[in-house]
Design brief:
The protein has 280 residues and is of the alpha/beta class. It contains eight helices and 16 strands. It has a ten-stranded mixed sheet, with helices on both faces. The chain has a four-stranded mixed sheet with strand order 3-2-6-7. The chain has a two-stranded antiparallel ribbon with strand order 10-11. The chain is globular and about 50 Å long.
Length: 280
């Protein structure tokens, strides 16, 4: 299968006490790596000349890159207060990905839009909805004032999205949880609302489910939601909804345990036994 992942790769500056380090980040990075285990993944992104080329060396062994030029690279500063809490600050932002910059979408079996800093406009999103589209809500609703907050989004902007993912905080962009669920029922085929290792909520064609991921002890959950969305989007094309949801949870749990995607589908299948789903 061929996958197109759209979103900014980022420079992430990590501050932990007196330690300062940098790494490549962005939801598109993790989603593309996850999808590359199932087929050919291409990333459409915008980068400035300041993006460290060494960050891409290993990445380009797994994925294809379509890099559009930008004056700046999207850069985040992440200050860790402890293992579970961090302050996020946007230092620089690459330019939006415009509708005319999109490749021919019909060449791809799945489009996964994973913005991190409002780089996908409503106009671009409308074009993407003409394909089989999975979308992460985070970068559509982020607001940048003194830090990074959550703004609002018109539910109608999501109409036509095949699969939507948001975490328990981001979903507040649609109002209360009850209002969000009603909005998602009316506008998307599948919605996934994750909450780390806690109970998540999934919707499909009007039905609401609770799912319980495997318990894994991890210090770094970066990329979990991106991996979950990518894995589910692939498996949902291959399997019924409930099996796809179970195996996507198992796949994500193994990624969190190992911080890589070097595991077998037999291991994923075994981990699936730890996932519980119930209709609510």
């Amino acid at each position: 299968m061929k996958f197109l992942v759209i979103g900014h790769l980022t420079r992430d500056i990590l501050i932990k006490g007196r330690r300062r380090s940098e790494r490549v980040g962005g939801g598109a990075y993790y989603s593309a790596l996850a999808l590359s285990t199932f087929g050919e993944a291409t990333v459409l992104t915008k980068l400035g000349g300041d993006f460290p080329k060494q960050f891409l060396n290993e990445f380009e062994k797994r994925v294809k890159l379509m890099v559009l030029p930008s004056k700046e690279t999207t850069t985040y500063e992440l200050t860790y207060l402890n293992e579970n809490e961090r302050i996020l600050r946007l230092l620089a932002r690459a330019e939006e990905i415009k509708p005319h910059e999109l490749p021919e979408l019909r060449k791809f079996d799945l489009i996964l839009a994973n913005p991190v800093a409002r780089e996908i406009s409503v106009e671009t999103l409308e074009i993407l909805k003409g394909a089989y589209l999975a979308l992460d809500l985070q970068g559509l609703v982020r607001e940048f004032n003194d830090g990074v907050g959550i703004g609002k989004i018109e539910p109608g902007h999501l109409r036509g999205v095949k699969i939507l993912h948001a975490d328990a905080n981001e979903i507040s962009a649609l109002g209360s949880l009850e209002n969000a669920i009603d909005s998602l029922k009316a506008n998307v085929e599948v919605a996934l609302i994750s909450d780390g290792s806690n109970r998540g909520i999934a919707l499909r064609k009007g039905k609401v489910y609770a799912y319980y991921p495997p318990r894994v002890g991890v210090k770094d959950s970066t990329g979990a939601g991106d991996t979950f969305l990518a894995a589910f989007s692939y498996f949902y094309r291959e399997r019924p909804f409930i099996p796809a949801l179970k195996i996507a949870n198992a796949f994500t749990a193994l990624f969190l345990e190992r911080r890589n995607y070097n595991f077998t589908m037999d291991e994923v299948s075994e981990k699936t036994l730890e996932v519980r789903i119930e209709e609510i």
